[in-house]
Design brief:
Residues 41-303 form the Ion transport domain. By secondary structure, the chain is mainly alpha-helical. The chain has helices spanning 2-10, 13-16, 19-22, 37-64, 68-75, 82-101, 117-126, 129-135, 140-143, 149-159, 166-172, 180-209, 219-227, 242-257, 270-301, 303-322, 326-343, and strands at residues 106-107, 113-114.
């Protein structure tokens, strides 16, 4: 019986698999199947580049573009700054990804693989082309030769358009939503990533308004006084280092998002207070979302144990109601435990 059951399960493959995976599609030359091994590896590579972009693009736009040492590195070209080389490689890979998407098949509403280049191009134009195109514009090349701080800051803000690719990544990660551990890890990563973004904005606010403050009450001046690295307007290299500023900004956003708020890093100006209010609101929403998902994951993990105890309780009530003698009662309980271990509580008749 078990052998026949396994044969029946294996024979379900033709009914369960999508129809386009059971037939050999007719594809044109230089056309890539969307479920081919090459496309899977390429998508994972693009995912890693998007994660790199999500981390380093806001950090570069907030901390590095206005830093004097970093500006000197950028002026001498790609040989002095490894970060410029990596950004150029990312831009090139994103452009190549656009070309690959123009040659990648897709499945239409009739569950048919479309391999016609014209239809693929139209489908891509109607879908993700605009987002991919904006994210692939090499804004770094525009920095060279533009010496003004306003142009540098504008290009740094335009580079954050790369983050639009995170929308595609979020849709691809939905397939892992059924795994509790994966969802929990993903939520923690999202929490840390949002804290990183807010830390970059927190520093940008303090850095932009610091030259216009007469009393020097911003959080950057307070940090300089605490660690003994005060700002000197006549010396552009004075003040806390980039490491001190980033770690302090990240510490503030984490403490605000988690509602801890030790108070050693506090907002003093109106802009900093308004931003802190926004961070608190974001933190409350994230708290509710993360804890709601965590409770659902824990409940899902212990649902099997709860069903086992419920079924075992019914077996004991059955034994007590029918006054089954002790030897037979022990055999019934052992049989139930063995059957549960074998089937993991799955009713094979219902399946």
């Amino acid at each position: 019986y078990d052998f026949l059951f396994h044969i029946q399960v294996l024979s379900l493959g033709a009914d369960v698999l999508p129809e386009y995976k059971l037939q050999t599609p007719r594809i044109n030359k230089f056309t890539i199947l969307h479920y081919s091994p090459f496309k899977a590896v390429w998508d994972w590579l693009i995912l890693l580049l998007v994660i790199y972009t999500a981390i380093f693009t806001p950090y570069s736009a907030a901390f590095l573009l206005n830093d004097r040492e970093e500006q000197k590195r950028r002026e001498c070209g790609y040989s002095c700054s490894p970060l410029n080389v990596v950004d150029l490689i990312v831009d090139i890979m994103f452009i190549i990804d656009i070309l690959i998407n123009f040659r990648t098949t897709y499945v239409n509403q009739n569950e048919e693989v479309v391999s016609d280049p014209a239809k693929i191009a139209i489908h891509y134009f109607k879908g993700w082309f605009l987002i991919d195109m904006v994210a692939a514009i090499p804004f770094d090349l525009l920095i060279f030769g533009s010496g003004s701080d306003e142009t540098t800051t504008l290009i740094g803000l335009l580079k954050t358009a790369r983050l639009l690719r995170l929308v595609r990544v979020a849709r691809k990660l939905d397939r892992y939503s059924e795994y509790g551990a994966a969802v929990l890890m993903l939520l923690m990563c999202i929490f840390a990533l949002i804290a990183h973004w807010l830390a970059c904005i927190w520093y940008a606010i303090g850095n932009v308004e610091r030259p216009y403050l007469t009393d020097k009450i911003g959080w950057l001046d307070s940090l300089g006084q605490q660690i003994g690295k005060r700002y000197n307007d006549s010396d552009s290299s004075s003040g806390p280092s980039i490491k001190d500023k980033y770690v302090t900004a990240l510490y503030f956003t984490f403490s605000s998002l988690t509602s801890v708020g030790f108070g050693n890093v506090s907002p003093n100006t109106n802009s900093e207070k308004i931003f802190s209010i926004c961070v608190m609101l974001i933190g409350s929403l994230m708290y509710a979302s993360i804890f709601g998902n965590v409770s659902a994951i824990i409940q899902r993990l212990y649902s099997g144990t709860a069903r086992y105890h419920m079924q075992m309780l019914r077996v004991k009530e059955f034994i007590r109601f029918h006054q089954i003698p002790n030897p037979l009662r022990q055999r019934l309980e052992e049989y139930f435990q063995h059957a549960w271990t074998y089937t993991n509580g799955i009713d094979m008749n219902m399946v």
